[in-house]
Amino acid sequence: MHVPSRSCLLLLAVGLCASASATATNVYQWKDAKGVTHSSDNPPAGQNYDKRRIDTHGNYVEAAQPEAPAVDPQCATARQNLQLLGSGAAVMRDTDDDGKPDTALSNEDRANQKSLAEAAAKAYCPPGG
Predict the structure, then answer these.
(1) Rounded to whole angstroms, how far apart are CA atoms 5 and 7?
(2) pLDDT in tens, 37-69
(3) pTM to 2 decimals?
(4) Residue 45 DSSP one-character state
(5) Cα dihedral angle (71, 75, 76, 79), rounded to 10 degrees?
(6) 24, 62, 85, 118 - which has most CB atoms within 10 Å?
(7) Coil, strand or helix: which one is 8?
(8) Per-domain boundaries in the chain
(9) Helix (H, G, I), strand (E, B) or coil at 117
């Protein structure tokens, strides 16, 4: 009868270990512009940060690699457009709706498109990014 009791205790111990890792949570750490380290259970917007998983006792569960903040796709498009429009290269557009670019943007059209791209970057990109 002692053998089943020990195996029950072993199963209970394994279950507790498994539940301890299941209750681990993410902690995000980053430094602000003044060099002050911050920690939170939510990642900061527009910042580089380190992510760590800790259990309910404050012990690290696994080593985590720093994650780059996700780039808003509209921000990425606005930046690409600004780069293209600022490059001086000819930018073509489709004026006859055949799916093929056939006319270069005029200087006025380029300036208008650049203004739109700057507004999109301001709206969708994080400050200082």
Answers:
(1) 5
(2) 888 888 888 888 888 888 888 787 765 456 666
(3) 0.45
(4) T
(5) -140
(6) 85
(7) helix
(8) 24-69, 73-124
(9) helix
